[in-house]
Design brief:
single chain; mainly alpha
């Protein structure tokens, strides 16, 4: 059950990252104090946090496998496969973990496009000028489009990373036929 629970945690994190693609593409809070740029910022920050969670799950899962199963089948190199899986995950997610760490420990994550969208939103709230409205709308839509593309690309890359990661771990958990757990 521990092995399944660990896998389920990884799966849930990845599913949440896929869900964020939907969240970033929609703004469901019309007529509330939540602004569209604020919502976009929040969703991006949630993506960073969930990516960090996934990275930590990918780091700990091979350790769980090794503790639970190593020694049961001495012919299998649990240590080597687990090490390779962790190295894959660490290398693949290092950049986003670093960005998330800076967001948490130094300064809130931001990029020029997000700052510009927030600025125009602030100006719009103090000035009903049509040009400001148009610029604000355009800036927000461009930022949202960019971040949706970035998140989709990241998620696609994550899918490939997870395939490689589990390719390393699969033989540690399942028999060669792939039909049953190793005993």
């Amino acid at each position: 059950m521990d092995l399944f629970a660990g896998f389920n945690e990884i799966s849930h994190s990845y599913d949440t990252l896929l869900d964020i693609e939907i969240y970033v593409a929609r703004f469901p809070y019309a007529n509330t104090r939540i602004t569209r740029p604020g919502h976009l910022q929040f969703i991006i920050e949630a993506y960073l946090h969930e990516s960090y969670t996934l990275a930590k799950r990918l780091e700990s899962y091979p350790k769980l496998i090794s503790r639970r199963l190593a020694g049961q089948l001495p012919r299998i190199d649990y240590k080597g496969a687990c090490k390779r899986a962790v190295e894959l995950a660490t290398a693949g997610l290092n950049n986003i973990v670093t960005i998330r760490g800076a967001h948490v420990h130094r300064r809130r994550f931001s990029t020029p496009d997000l700052e510009k969208a927030a600025l125009y939103d602030l100006l719009r709230s103090h000035d009903g000028d049509g040009l400001t409205q148009m610029l604000g709308e355009y800036t927000y839509r461009e930022a949202r489009k960019k971040w949706l593309s970035t998140i989709r690309t990241n998620n696609s890359d994550l899918a490939r990373l997870l395939d490689l990661y589990f390719l390393e771990l699969y033989p540690l958990v399942f028999d060669p036929s792939g039909e049953t757990f190793l005993n």
